[in-house]
Amino acid sequence: MPLPTRASQDLILNTQREKLKRRHVFKPLPPVKVVIQSLGRVVSSRNMASELKEDQAKTFPDCIQLNDLASETVGGKILFATDDFFAPAENLLKRQAPEFKLNVFTEYGKWMDGWETRRKRIPGHDWCIIQLGVPGVIHGFDVDTRFFTGNYAPRISIQAANLNQGEVPTFSQRNNKMGTAFSEEDLEIVNKLKSDSWNLLLPMVELKAGHLETSHNVFPVSSQQRWTHIRLNIYPDGGIARLRIYGVAQKDWSVIGTNDLVDLVAMVNGGVCLGFSNAHFEHPRNLIGIGRANDMGDGWETARRLDRPSILKTNDKGILQVPGCEWTIFRLGHSGVITFIEIDTNHFKGNFPDSCKIDTCALNQQEEKEEALQKWSKMNEGKWKPLLSITKSKSSCRDIKRISGPINRLSRGLFSAASSITLYMWTVIDLRLCISDADFIYGTWFTGKILYCWCYRVHREWPNFARQDPEFRAPEEGALAAQLYAAIPL
Ligand SMILES: NC(=O)NC(NC(N)=O)C(=O)[O-]
């Protein structure tokens, strides 16, 4: 089959985007245990679903909706690869979807956007070691062979380990590894990890070639443990464009003090998207990634709704009067008292949402499951309480809101349950929103109890970064936390 040209690929992609599903709610996740481990970093990932045909996306398991724990954007790293002859293993972790460049060759061969080893002429098989950017529970893999057609790796297996920092030896800088294989020195270092005996998360499976319809090789896994490192084995050699490792972060909540300000929904803290109405351009999980968005592709961006009125009207508060809205639901990584929300429409200038609102809800696991099975259609039936009433959004702007009033004083009852939050975007003229930065939560923590609630992105180095950030104003920090803490009956 001839390789498609760039122009024809764009055409196919655009056609597929047009057909993208409008609403997605995925099956409830299994309970996430809070494991006492060291703090990881953060996650965001691209919307793989947006590359797929509607019916194709439907056939993929829900794990592809979770956070990519290995993306370079959250600190995922290649520590070692047996061979990087045609293309270095670092490409596996790139955020962007793979590209194909017709007639582009390097001094080693055809330029390929992925990890591609040479045709092996010695015993054994190729493998590499990946350090996750965010340690967590892995729910599945997408092994994307895109554009590797006559040269894809025919079989893989995946092993995993949960390592303390002290157990990981220092590897030499990989720099540009193209045209090379491992050195004796690298081998000596990697042997210390004894990775060939790590837990087998995915036994040997066959891959399909990197044609558009077959390139996403998705494998759900059911391990409930926390992992920090992955060994990807390819048999015997070949190329893979991207490896997405989908899961939920696990954070050590025992190190969080009752006066600490923490972003409860940040992916790095265990936040996870449970469903959404539309992810036409970008997935809402981007809202809970790390730092401010790099560009519009790093936010949540829906399609313009076709049911928007031909002639728009606003009410006396300037809010557009339109039917319906787009929504997304997040489960928080831990319970807490929400005192700050940050809504950041960074990079969204001609397409920021007219307004948004936020509701919260306390749900136990069973209730969460039921709500998800009913596609969150019961959101307006009593359980959900407003956290932020309908509020006008601004163009490319970081907006921090302090939440006050009874909603903050969560009763103990709430803490014995799980809760979820919905974010409504009341705008129909243009439903693109990038909410991309820290939600400032003055948290009160109840280790061992998980309340799923809401908030936004976390800064790298949280909370120190935020406290040094001149734009950040957290009034009465210590006093506020103590007061709220006192207000919660124990
Ligand atoms: N045309 C190719 O892709 N050839 C080889 N790969 C690269 N990247 O040149 C190969 O067969 O492995």
UniProtKB/TrEMBL annotation:
<dbReference type="InterPro" id="IPR005164">
    <property type="entry name" value="Allantoicase"/>
</dbReference>
<dbReference type="GO" id="GO:0000256">
    <property type="term" value="P:allantoin catabolic process"/>
</dbReference>
<keyword id="KW-0659">Purine metabolism</keyword>
<dbReference type="InterPro" id="IPR015908">
    <property type="entry name" value="Allantoicase_dom"/>
</dbReference>
<feature type="domain" description="Allantoicase">
    <location>
        <begin position="75"/>
        <end position="249"/>
    </location>
</feature>
<comment type="function">
    <text>Utilization of purines as secondary nitrogen sources, when primary sources are limiting.</text>
</comment>
<comment type="similarity">
    <text>Belongs to the allantoicase family.</text>
</comment>
<dbReference type="GO" id="GO:0004037">
    <property type="term" value="F:allantoicase activity"/>
</dbReference>
<dbReference type="Pfam" id="PF03561">
    <property type="entry name" value="Allantoicase"/>
</dbReference>
<dbReference type="GO" id="GO:0006144">
    <property type="term" value="P:purine nucleobase metabolic process"/>
</dbReference>
<comment type="pathway">
    <text>Nitrogen metabolism; (S)-allantoin degradation; (S)-ureidoglycolate from allantoate (aminidohydrolase route): step 1/1.</text>
</comment>
<feature type="domain" description="Allantoicase">
    <location>
        <begin position="270"/>
        <end position="399"/>
    </location>
</feature>
<protein>
    <recommendedName>
        <fullName>Allantoicase</fullName>
        <ecNumber>3.5.3.4</ecNumber>
    </recommendedName>
</protein>
<dbReference type="InterPro" id="IPR008979">
    <property type="entry name" value="Galactose-bd-like_sf"/>
</dbReference>
